């Protein structure tokens, strides 16, 4: 995919009345996910510039005129600094656009609002992320959310864990029954199911509906879903000491999590020689204490690290390091 970095001065000036086609083309090509992992399915329609649009661009936006003749569906434009794009998007939403036909005008307003939400880190609009891991392709619907519901988006941590699972599946010799804590959008469950395992994915009530939707989207029927709140495990239907494998990805991001997650491991992992815990954490600067605490608590349960794997990858906010530990009973 080509990603061209633009300057905000390259964008059409509304006072010069760009056509609806020019504005739609510019809006569709703005990539709000330049920093993320995977690709997003977009619903762009093919927009073709006519000679008068090309003339207008040559007169008013020479940089775009140079870029756009070669435009195809894979073209994407981004900005060094997201703040640069906001005045342009705001002016589109605020303008009457009365020189543009109603149908295009509505589309421009809709697209501008969506892009504004996407650039504004406090909220994200609905999207479908597509990940290719080895030969597997996974589609994950991520509904618009407001960062109170972190499980409605996929985190780089589960992507890294799945890369490891796909490449080392045979050697890990994971045994069923398998439980995942804090499954989010379901990536780990979908990948393990595609590798032939059955498992139980769990999360908080507001997250599990979308989790189920993603299992259906990927035609996966080996995965069961259940609510499991780590603060109230008695309320779940999962039997104590019933799981041979537990997977946890990016679930340590508050001071209460180390204790809660280690309690879930103590409660649900079988006390057998081939029981395994796979604990994947991103190495975020602000969470050194929580990471050390969870690793310490897990070892105090009587589990020991059988293997450790450090990887570099992406989260939606840029590059990150990730740590995976596979534990077994001492
Ligand atoms: C950062 S997300 C990671 C999601 C997914 N594992 C991934 O890596 O993409 C953390 C997940 O933990 C879940 N979670 C947080 N607190 C929880 C709790 N008390 N009980 C159960 N799940 C919880 C969230 O709902 C969310 O799905």
Automatic annotation (TrEMBL):
Any single Gene Ontology cellular-component annotation: cytosol
User: What protein does this entry describe?
Assistant: Uncharacterized protein
An example molecular function term from Gene Ontology annotations: S-adenosylmethionine-dependent methyltransferase activity
* Database matches in PANTHER family: HEPATOCELLULAR CARCINOMA-ASSOCIATED ANTIGEN (PTHR14614), PROTEIN-LYSINE N-METHYLTRANSFERASE EFM2 (PTHR14614:SF156)
Task: Please name the Pfam families in this protein's record.
Answer: Methyltransf_16 (PF10294)
């Amino acid at each position: 995919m080509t990603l061209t970095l633009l300057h905000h001065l390259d964008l059409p000036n509304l006072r010069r009345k760009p056509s609806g086609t020019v504005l739609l083309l510019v809006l569709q090509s703005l990539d709000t996910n330049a920093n993320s992992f995977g690709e997003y399915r977009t619903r762009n329609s093919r927009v073709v510039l006519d000679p008068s649009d090309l003339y207008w661009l040559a007169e008013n936006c020479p940089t775009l005129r140079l870029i756009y003749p070669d435009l195809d569906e894979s073209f994407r434009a981004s900005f060094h600094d997201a703040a640069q794009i906001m005045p342009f998007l705001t002016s589109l939403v605020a303008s009457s656009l009365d020189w543009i036909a109603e149908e295009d005008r509505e589309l421009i307003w809709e697209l501008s609002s969506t892009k504004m939400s996407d650039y504004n880190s406090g909220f994200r609009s609905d999207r479908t992320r597509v990940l290719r891991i080895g030969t597997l392709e996974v589609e994950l619907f991520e509904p618009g959310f407001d960062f109170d519901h972190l499980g409605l988006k996929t985190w780089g941590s589960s992507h890294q864990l799945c890369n490891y699972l796909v490449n080392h599946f045979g050697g890990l010799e994971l045994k069923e029954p398998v439980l995942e804590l804090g499954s989010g959008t379901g990536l780990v469950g979908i990948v393990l199911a595609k590798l032939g395992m059955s498992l139980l994915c769990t999360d908080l009530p507001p997250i599990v509906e979308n989790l189920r939707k993603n299992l259906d989207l990927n035609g996966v029927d080996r995965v069961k879903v259940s609510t499991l709140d780590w603060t109230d495990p008695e309320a779940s239907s999962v039997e104590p000491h019933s799981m041979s494998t537990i997977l946890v990805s990016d679930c340590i991001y508050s001071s209460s999590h180390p204790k809660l997650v280690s309690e879930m491991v103590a409660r649900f992992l079988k006390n057998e020689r081939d029981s395994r815990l796979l604990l994947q954490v991103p190495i975020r600067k602000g969470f050194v204490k929580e990471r050390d605490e969870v690793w310490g608590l897990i070892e105090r349960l009587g589990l020991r690290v059988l293997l450790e794997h450090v990887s570099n990858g992406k989260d939606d906010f840029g590059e990150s390091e990730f740590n995976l530990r596979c534990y077994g009973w001492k």
